Amino acid sequence: MDKTVFKNILQFLIILIFNSFLAQTVPQKLQRNTVINDTIPKVVSDTITKKDTIVLPKESLEDVLRTKADSKRRDVPKKMIYLVQNAQVKYQDMQIDADYISIDEEKNIIYARGKLDSLGKITELAQVDQAGKKYEVESFSYNTKTREAIAYNARTEESEGLIVAIKTKKYNDSVFVMRHAEFTTDKYYIDKKDKRPDYHLLASHIKMQKGKSNSTLIVGPAQMYIEDVPTPLVMPFAILPFSDKRSAGILIPSFGEREDVGFFLNGLGYYQPIGEHFDLRVLADIYTKGSWNLRPEMNYIKKYRYNGNFAADIGNTVRGIKGLDNYSKTGTYRIAWRHTQDTKANPFLTFSASVDVTSQTFYNNTVNNNYIMDQSVLRTQQNSTLTLTKRFLTLPITITGTASYNQNFATGLADLRLPQMNIAINQFYLFGSKTGVRQGLLENITVNTGINLTNSVSTEEGELFTKAMWDKLQTGVRNNIALGTNTTIAKYFTFSLGANIDNALTTKTLTRAYDPIENKVVDQVNKRVAGYSTFSTSASLQTTLYGMLNFKKGGAVEAIRHMMMPSLSFSYSPDFGAPGFGYFRNYYDAAGALTPYSIFDMGIVGSPVSGEVGAMGYNISNNIEMKIKSKSDSTGVKKIKIFESLNINGNYNFLAKSHPFSIINVTGQTSLFDSKLSINTSLAIEPYKILFVPGTDTGIRTEDFGSFSVQGFNVQMSYPLSSEIFQDKNEKKDLSKIYNKKGEIRNENYYFDDDNYAHFEQTWSLNVNASYAYTRNLTREGTRIASVGLDGNMKLTPFWNVTGSTHYDMITGKLAYTRIGFARDQRSFTINFNWVPFGQYKVYDFFIGIKANILSDALKYKDRSFTQPNAPF
């Protein structure tokens, strides 16, 4: 009975439980079925069918947190983990190594700090490595949930630079904000070889943005410090990009003082790349006395095609004090364009440009000190040229079109040739060869010919492209045909024949007359088409002779060799001044004498030569060498050049009515002392006696031959000296073998002896040049020019370099242009100082530039443009 009652009760409980289960599950199934099939009757759901609101909590860590340390402790109630000594935490892509690390499991914060000494001062920084980037910090907090971090006194290396900030906050993996941060590129400080950097930029705020391939620092107000000493260089802001690509940046100026225009900032500006093919640089020069200068420049390049740059220089030069007589204000300008085509781009069509146009007084009034340092202020001329050349694959013709503009600052005139076209036919042989090897005079006849078209005008700067200029414009066409041939006679003589034909046509002719009222010769240019033709022939015979003079064996001089190349030539041309040609006319001068002139004088196609010429010319070229004993040479002898070349030439005109002998010209070139001393000289000798009338300074050539006098003499010498010349190559000192102690940090280029005196390689070079010129030109007293110049540099220490150049005028006894420069290498930056102490322009220029490649665009110490690095403008 009891068992039966127990079974019934158990069955009843099972039925209740099963019914309860059906009450929860069946209605939900039915509801889902009603969506699929409307024929299934709907059942009213019970409140028990509501979804369960209990959700498992999400893990606070997205990855496994790995820890290790010499000592570990876990505080369960506070949900804290403490790691002490050689502590390490690895989480996702981050690894932290520190002396102390704590992990707050409730707040999801990891805190780390460096090693403390007994006084509580950090002696060893904590190391943080995230995604391959390393950081050193005194203390560090990281939120594993938000991925934000705060670091104190963190050292952050970025490319070649280092940032040390009192406080750094990381917002995400690409944005960092820093407070009171120092930035430097000093390699010694980065590598911890030195305790402080040689320079740094101190900024109140820095924002660093990281990209996939580059990073950028946005710097707030920053001041430059050198050896922890503040400088006046303060930037309100700066953007420092760290990338291999070109990027924008500030151009650091030089500063100094110039006597005529005051204190200055020279070269202050901004650099901006424009796409892959262009960049723009804008510079400004500012002076305290009111002068200013603006210099924009654009460079462009297309690889394997062309490259070039546009540049301008516009400014005002103010001198003196306003209201006084010495006050002046001069506007200046300069426009330049350089274009070079790659030789492989198109061999049949090439274009080049070298345009340089300035105001007439530009160099005398420039405020750009670069023109003073490179002596451009001494220029007397400026040339500009545009050239277009066309070649053909099947035609032996080359067509060259040229436009040129030449300025003469001394005369104030400008010569404009626009356009100028030359059609040249490639040299060809007049006759073919029967055997394949050209022999004899006929088979060796060559022809050179071409046509030249020129439009030219010489005018003043203010008349350019005005009616006055077009009225002066001359047009001319010229054709030249040159025939030549040569052959060998008796094996040792070369015989040459030649003929030259010139044809010219011009649109302007000349009429010359003497005006007795004005007491001067008046030239009148006529608009009339006229032309002339001239021809000449020549023949020459030349050979080479050798002579050797041997001395006794054992002597200091073993032999002298003389090579002489004499040549004789004969040339003939008729008298184109004869009345039958119509090329020459006559006018009566102030003395009433009939004076001939050519109607083509002052023209652009030249003028014929008057007087019949039947001249015998001579030329003797010499080369003299000497063999001497030499212990330094492995052969035991050494060659010395006495004269590399010694030439004597002149001619005798058989058909001349007077003075048949020409002036004798002697030129020589040699190099002595192991080819170090270079000497070039020339001498002009007048074979006729010069007669001077009392009271006059200009002489008259008489027919008295044989009274030789010097009419001109010139000699130029240069000798490069250097420290290597005075060192024995076999006894060159190796400081590392002599001194065992080598310097460290800043003194790694020095070796120290036992008394701690520094030793180093002190190199220097000095180029000495001298010139002397004497010119007489039939005057009683000739003019003399003599000067000595020095140009050199010396390394006072491995970090100090001194350069300079000067010229001493021996006639006036005064120093001419002189420049002195100092350069100091401060490891990661350079200090340059240039000084012109006297002369028309007294100026000193001071510049500080950072050498790091990552700042070459940002601060532009190195002008890393994609075109030429040291552009001339």
From TrEMBL:
InterPro entries: LptD, LptD_2
Record Pfam families: LptD_2
Superkingdom as given in the UniProt entry: Bacteria
LPS-assembly protein LptD central domain: residues covered: 218-688
Name of the protein in question: LPS-assembly protein LptD
Species in which this protein is naturally found: Chryseobacterium caseinilyticum
